[in-house]
Amino acid sequence: MRRARAPARLLLVPVLWAQLLCGSVWGSELTFELPDNAKQCFYEDIIVGTKCTLEFQVVTGGHYDVDCRLEDPDGTVLYKEMKKQYDSFTFTAAKNGTYKFCFSNEFSTFTHKTVYFDFQVGDDPPLFPNENRVTALTQMESACVSIHEALKSVIDYQTHFRLREAQGRSRAEDLNTRVAFWSIGEAFILLVVSISQVVLLRSFFSDKKTTTTRVGS
What we know:
Oligomer: single chain
GO cellular component, one term: endoplasmic reticulum membrane
Helix content: 25-40%
Main location: membrane
Membrane topology: Single-pass type I membrane protein
Function: Potential role in vesicular protein trafficking, mainly in the early secretory pathway. Appears to play a role in the biosynthesis of secreted cargo including processing and post-translational modifications.
Order of helices and strands: EEEEEEEEEH
Largest sheet: 5 strands, antiparallel
Family: Belongs to the EMP24/GP25L family.
């Protein structure tokens, strides 16, 4: 997968390319920072007939929304959503070439976003070369298939909860910052009120100087 040059600063640079059990499934998973008024595009070479899935989620920033757009090699828009927090889109490549998908934060003026996406290319290959045979699988093969499916579910759950943990941490840090500023403001107001009360009370008990005017005869 190729990434377009843009001013976005990547938080997690590694792009994970993995082939599952020597099969033909390729996947790229990335978490990056998308500044305000910025757009970040990625490119993927796909063979015709390949099933692909794009999943994304805004982890931190603003209202947790971002624009997403997916185009085929001819520039035809396959998927377009505005201000989405998270979504998933599955399609089958109709032609060979380079597909482009972009995330845009151009509608935001001040808020940076942290975006996670997972782009899977191809179907999961069978665990065993003869898994689709007419005869039944052995008990050992069936157990391996069940464990394999369970492990994939565990990976999905781990990713989901990792993203939720990141969102929760971001919100907690934002709330902590607001509480800290509110506490500082309350302390300042309390100090001003205390000083004002002391000055006011001292004015009540201070000796007032009286002026005497003599009238000459």
